[in-house]
Design brief:
By secondary structure, the protein is α+β, with helices and mostly antiparallel strands. The protein is built from six helices and five strands; from the N terminus they run E-E-H-E-E-H-H-E-H-H-H.
Length: about 110
C-alpha cells in the first residue's frame, strides 16, 4: 500500500514484520515469577480498534507497517489532516485481511 505523506510516496507492508512490530507495541503483557513477558497477540488486540475506527490504532498500524523512513509524527499528522479517514480505515483493514501473514489471525477473529 502506498500513501503520499509530505509529498512523498511512502510504502506500507502488512506482512510478518508488521505483525512482529505490533507484538512489541500492542502485545499482551504479563508477569510470571517476577519476570515481565510479552505474549504477542498485537494484531488480535489491534483489529477491534481498527473496526471501531480508533485513530491511534490506525496510526500504530501504519507505523508498524511502514517501510523506509516515516516517523510516527508524520503518520499522526497525515491522519489528523485526512479528508477521507473512513476510507483510510477501510483501506488498511482490507490490506491486513489480504496479507498472507495476517489473514489467519483475522479469519479466526470472526469465528
Amino acid at each position: 500500500m502506498k500513501l503520499k505523506i509530505n509529498g512523498e510516496d511512502k510504502l506500507f507492508i502488512f506482512g510478518v514484520k508488521f505483525i512482529r512490530n505490533l507484538d512489541k507495541n500492542r502485545g499482551v503483557e504479563g508477569e510470571q515469577n517476577g519476570m515481565k513477558m510479552n505474549f504477542g497477540m498485537g494484531l488480535t488486540v489491534l483489529m477491534p480498534s481498527l473496526v471501531t475506527q480508533d485513530a491511534s490504532a490506525l496510526a500504530d498500524a501504519l507505523f508498524a507497517a511502514a517501510k523506509g523512513n516515516v516517523t510516527q509524527d508524520e503518520i499522526d499528522n497525515y491522519i489528523d489532516n485526512s479528508k477521507n479517514l473512513e476510507g483510510l480505515f477501510k483501506q488498511v483493514i482490507n490490506e491486513i485481511k489480504e496479507s498472507n501473514a495476517a489473514k489467519p489471525v483475522v479469519k479466526n477473529l470472526k469465528a
